[in-house]
Amino acid sequence: MGSSLSCCGSEKVDEGVGIGGNSPWRIFTYKELHAATNGFCEENMLGEGGFGSVYWGKTSDGLQIAVKKLKSMNSKAEMEFAVEVEVLGRVRHKNLLGLRGYCAAAEQRLIVYDYMPNLSLLSHLHGQFAGEVQLDWKRRMKIALGSAEGLLYLHHEVTPHIIHRDIKASNVLLDSNFEPLVADFGFAKLIPEGVSHMTTRVKGTLGYLAPEYAMWGKVSESCDVYSFGILLLELLTGRKPIEKLPGGIKRTITEWADPMILKGRFKDLADPKLGGNFDESQLKMGVNVAALCVQNEPEKRPTMREVVGILKGYDPKGKVMQMKIESVKYGDDLMAMDQGSDEEDGKGYDESSAYGVFGPMDNRVQKMQDPYKRYGDGRIVKHG
Ligand SMILES: Nc1ncnc2c1ncn2[C@@H]1O[C@H](COP(=O)(O)OP(=O)(O)OP(=O)(O)O)[C@@H](O)[C@H]1O
Ligand SMILES: [Mg+2]
């Protein structure tokens, strides 16, 4: 890290200077962000997630920003904040929502991003814009490829490589041209002790979690690939990752899609809001990619490089049509925690019931055995 990063207030950094001189971000003062967001008032709030609340704002020079006000941090997390900010400051890609800046005042940690006028993919698929049907087929294809390219960059091109861990529709933001920008990479580690982001996430977005991550906390790039597969299916079909059926039963998007894929009824999978205006071969290809991505065994999933190759029609892996889509069976108690079908942003979770990130997940994803043997020296080896 450059010695100029003054998150703890010990060193002075000139505003307007990014690390290495090539980053467009700068340091904001708390006063400036307070003024830009009208005192972080309720009307400016865009939403609330696992790390804090996000507010719309306008700086004195007219730039529209989104300010994420993180929940209080402990001293250990403070250093991690600085490291993460430095990493995020280096990331530059057309499909990633990079940093515009940050503020590390005495008690506050705030991250500043460019404001995305079309908000999130979630708001268009299931939220406030859902009725307007602005997502035609061409835009959906652009969103699929763009978000895949953003992830490819994180997994394979930036150093150090970054695993997102929270790919979902609310973390795919849309600019004025509906170009997707993947947001919130890198901050998954910034969870103050005792606060379980996993709890929050399960309550809102269980359906995106790869089984090996939900059960054993095994994190790798292929967890993101799994989540991307669910996101892609959601984008093509307009269905939520987990739906609540009459009678309170919950069904995952893969469970819903499987019988139709099996019978080759691809047209029935397309979002009815498209009114039949879609390219059938692209739809099939997209479903095929999703089926490859959501395989239970992480080793079988393609890399994001392969996913991008298939989406562009270059990779031969995409030629073999998957006639089955695997479905994770989340346990009933986990399903009960999922509020994705009732609430859009995971608001209303009870932090007092927060527990360790992975401990309570054991036995909640049924019918799977841990294929990994863990040794005392930290090695993890796959059986067989
Ligand atoms: N730059 C931005 N422009 C416009 N809307 C944004 C921006 N950043 C975040 N939002 C919106 O603000 C809301 C809250 O975002 P936040 O990232 O805190 O929560 P989340 O995405 O629901 O969950 P997570 O904490 O897992 O990322 C979301 O609806 C998100 O789409
Ligand atoms: Mg987010």
Topology:
Layout: E1 26-27, H1 30-36, E2 45-48, E3 52-58, E4 64-70, H2 75-90, E5 101-104, E6 109-114, H3 121-125, H4 137-157, E7 172-174, E8 180-182, H5 197-205, H6 211-216, H7 221-237, E9 242-244, E10 250-252, H8 253-262, H9 280-293, H10 304-311, H11 332-337, E11 372-374, E12 380-382
Parallel strand pairs: 1-5
Antiparallel strand pairs: 2-3, 3-4, 4-6, 5-6, 7-8, 9-10, 11-12
Helix pairs in contact: 4-7, 4-10, 7-9
Magnesium ion (MG) binds at residues 49, 170-171, 183-184.
Name the CATH class of the largest domain. Answer: Mainly Alpha
- Major β-sheet profile: 6 strands, mixed
Report the C-alpha radius of gyration, rounded: 21 Å
Give the overall form.
globular
Mean pLDDT: 80
Ends apart, CA distance between termini? 42 Å
CATH superfamily of the largest domain: Transferase(Phosphotransferase) domain 1
How many β-strand stretches? Answer: 12
- Please give the domain count: 2
Associated small molecules: adenosine-5'-triphosphate, magnesium ion
Helix content: 25-40%
Given as residue ranges, the uncertain stretches (5+ residues, pLDDT < 50) are 1-23, 341-364
Q: Supply the CATH architecture of the largest domain.
A: Orthogonal Bundle
CATH topology of the largest domain: Transferase(Phosphotransferase), domain 1
Describe this structure in words.
It is a single chain. The chain has two domains: 15-116 and 361-381, 2-Layer Sandwich (Phosphorylase Kinase, domain 1), CATH 3.30.200.20; 121-336, Transferase(Phosphotransferase) domain 1 (Transferase(Phosphotransferase), domain 1, Orthogonal Bundle), CATH 1.10.510. The chain contains eleven helices and twelve strands. The protein has helices at residues 30-36, 75-90, 121-125, 137-157, 197-205, 211-216, 221-237, 253-262, 280-293, 304-311, 332-337; strands spanning 26-27, 45-48, 52-58, 64-70, 101-104, 109-114, 172-174, 180-182, 242-244, 250-252, 372-374, 380-382. Strands 1-5-6-4-3-2 form a six-stranded mixed β-sheet, with helices on both faces. Strands 7-8 form a two-stranded antiparallel sheet. Strands 9-10 form a two-stranded antiparallel ribbon. Helix 4 packs antiparallel against helix 7 (221-237) and helix 4 runs antiparallel to helix 10 (304-311). Mean pLDDT is 80; it is low at 1-23 and 341-364. The chain binds adenosine-5'-triphosphate and magnesium ion (MG). Adenosine-5'-triphosphate (ATP) is lined by residues 46-51, 54, 66, 68, 97, 113, 115-116, 119-120, 166, 170-171, 173, 183-184, 345-346.
